[in-house]
Design brief:
20 helices, Rossmann fold, five-stranded parallel sheet, single chain, Helicase, Ruva Protein, domain 3, 12% strand, 3 domains, alpha/beta, 480 residues
Length: 480
């Protein structure tokens, strides 16, 4: 979630000597600096240049620092603002915080303290900007229920969902466990209900009609690998009373219960060959024969099937009937594994952070930059489900209530990355190892803190003892 720290700073002060001295200090640290000697000049600069942090004096002619802060944050709500003053009052400090300024600092201010504040505020500003961007992107791409993604392959899936939702075609969804196959099935069902609603309804009317449509056209999901063979046949097709031990009443089965809605058959390849024959007949005739009956019952549900296996290979090996395969494979959707859509990981992380925080009734958390690098380098054998579980684990067990750190990652994830180059993404650069990323992150914090270890530990969000262990482990010296 944390973007690389931005570097352009605008200093606003009517005292030219202050502008020159602050500019010199910041430029010596590698920042790009613009200056303005009035609030009017500052606003012109902000509209002309990409500024990542504003430092403004409180006392200025015409427009003071508070008034400038109010105007700036009205146009750029995510821009960090630091107010400097030699004669500040408690009232002014409170008012500046209320307006959204991130710091209210008293002159004279030592260069070291100022640089630490600036580094921290730049990182927080980059985080807010990234969260805002990701949230907007989630809203833009999250039009199919809980499916999150902007990857090109996911966009193609969204297009397919949109195209097939209004048609009765059967759909086969293929993908590894945890990739979200049922989410796609639900998205097709929900979108098909939306297309049936008349236009021009109010939000309350739409919600009411959706509920009514769901009652008439329900979504039912069945995992074909979760039942014994005889129970699965009864679950699918229904049974008559007395047809087997325990059948104390008639049961209609999920084909009939789905009515004119959607029946999702997950792990379709778990069906034995006898049940495959019965399923094929049901799909061809649009009717089922309950266990213990000779009278067929018609159904009107759309059938969506899914599997985590290569069904074409099973067909070739005669473990799955080819005629049934061609019957269910009218529209084929292949869901990519998470390792093939690395660019969606920040979106998914942001989504899970917010939803899990809401379910726990706590504030959301940040993700440290090295953790995000691990997220985008790990192979994710459990796919999106594993990522969600990992983030929830961090909420449940993590000691830091504000951020997810490397300490929150399971040992098996770290071991999977140990000794490997981080960053399996297909880029032109060679990514460093996990240990190199952590070492560089610690060195950068120490440099920003002027090698004051207590301040560096605060920047990293860890205690000093842990920082000392990291320094010792990675043989970090000040000349580094």
């Amino acid at each position: 979630m944390i973007a690389p720290a931005a570097r352009r700073i605008l200093i606003t002060d009517d005292d030219r000597s202050v502008l020159e001295s602050l500019s010199q200090v910041l430029r010596s640290e590698g920042y790009e600096v613009s200056t303005a000697n009035s609030a009017e000049d500052a606003m012109q600069t902000l509209r002309r240049e990409p500024i990542q942090l504003l430092i403004t004096d409180m006392r200025m002619p015409k427009t003071n620092g508070l008034e400038l802060t109010r105007e700036v944050l009205g146009e750029w709500p995510n821009l960090p603002v630091v107010i400097l003053t030699a004669h500040g009052t408690v009232r002014e400090a409170v008012e500046s915080m209320r307006l959204g300024a991130v710091d209210f600092l008293m002159k004279p201010l030592g260069p070291e303290e100022l640089l630490i504040k600036i580094q921290k505020r730049l990182e927080e500003g980059a985080l807010r900007t990234e969260v805002f961007r990701l949230s907007a992107q989630v809203r833009k791409t999250g039009r199919f229920g809980d499916i999150i993604g902007s990857n090109a392959s996911m966009r193609r899936i969204f297009e397919t969902v949109e195209q097939v939702a209004g048609k009765p075609s059967q759909v086969l969804i293929q993908g590894e466990p945890g990739t979200g196959k049922e989410l796609i099935a639900r998205a097709i069902h929900n979108r098909s209900l939306e297309l049936r609603l008349p236009e021009g309804l109010s939000d309350s009317e739409i919600d009411h009609m959706r509920q009514m449509a769901e009652l008439k056209s329900p979504y039912i999901g069945v995992n074909c690998g979760a039942f014994a063979r005889n129970l699965l046949e009864s679950q699918l097709f229904g049974h008559k009373r007395g047809s087997f031990t325990g059948a104390i009443a008639d049961q209609e089965g999920v084909f009939v219960a789905s009515q004119n809605g959607t029946l999702f058959l997950d792990e379709i390849t778990e069906l034995d060959l006898d049940l495959q024959v019965k399923l094929l007949r049901a799909l061809q005739e649009r009717e089922v024969v309950p266990v213990g009956s000779t009278r067929p019952v018609q159904f009107g549900a759309r059938i969506i099937t899914a599997t985590n296996q290569e069904i074409q290979t099973l067909v070739h090996d005669k473990a799955f009937r080819p005629d049934l395969y061609w019957r269910i494979n009218v529209v084929n959707i292949r869901v990519p594994p998470l390792r093939e859509r690395v660019d969606d990981i920040p979106l998914l992380v942001d989504y899970f952070l917010k939803t899990i925080a809401k379910s726990y009734g706590v504030a959301t958390r940040e993700v440290e930059a090295p953790v995000m690098e691990v997220f985008q380098s790990y192979s994710w054998p459990g796919n999106v489900r594993e990522l969600q579980n990992l983030i929830e684990r961090a909420f449940a067990l993590g000691k830091d209530e504000k951020r997810i750190t490397m300490d929150d990652l399971p040992q098996d994830v770290l071991e999977a990355l140990d000794g490997r180059a981080l960053g399996s993404r297909k880029t032109d650069s060679v990514f460093p190892t996990y240990d190199q990323v952590v070492r560089d992150h610690v060195v950068r914090a120490l440099q920003a803190a002027g090698w004051v270890k207590a301040r560096a530990a605060h920047l990293l969000g860890i205690d000093r003892n842990r920082l000392y262990r990291l320094i010792k482990r990675y043989v970090i010296k000040q000349e580094d």
